[in-house]
Amino acid sequence: MITIQLFPNTFLILFFLIFIVTIIIRLVKKNNSLKLFYVGIIELYVLLLISVTILPINIIDSSLMKAKSGLVNCFQLIPFRTITKIFRYDGFLSIQLIGNIVLLLPLPILIGFVVKNKSFAVLFIKCTMFSLGIEIAQVCIDLVLQYPSRRFDVDDIILNIIGILIGIVIFKTISCFEKFYHWIGENIVWTV
Q1: CB distance 1 to 58 below 8 Å
Q2: Which terminus of the chain, N or C, has fewer Cβ atoms within 10 Å?
Q3: Nearest CA-CA partner of 71 in 167, 1, 143
Q4: pTM of this prediction?
């Protein structure tokens, strides 16, 4: 079995390589350090998302698999089944529960500033599509490998949506303070 994953050392090296390229590009364009900081936050967030949602990928030799895994093993489509199991065995403070809520919480804030859009519906739809995209990517990897290491779980999407809604509330609260919102947008984000 081969496992593809980002260990902490590999993660840091990859982040610094990507960030150094970004620094070089930003220096050529002569952007200020606050804009570079915002781009770094986005790069770090995307790497964290990939390392948490897509990786590790386990590649198992087909001769070691006892039975063919069917397509049905890649999906959990019954709402609240996984959430109920989490509550029953781990309680409200489960890392999986909290992790799925926190995972996409920053996304509406980052998207809201980048696209200069304060619309609840637009932020909600874009972020929900992102959550669905993560689950579809996991299924595609499972189908290619013919082994269900990650599953499309409708409960992950439900928990992600809770985090997205919290993120939208935070973004809406920030945008209510017009001076602060425009300062962040004009000095850090909008000219990135």
Answers
A1: yes
A2: N
A3: 143
A4: 0.85
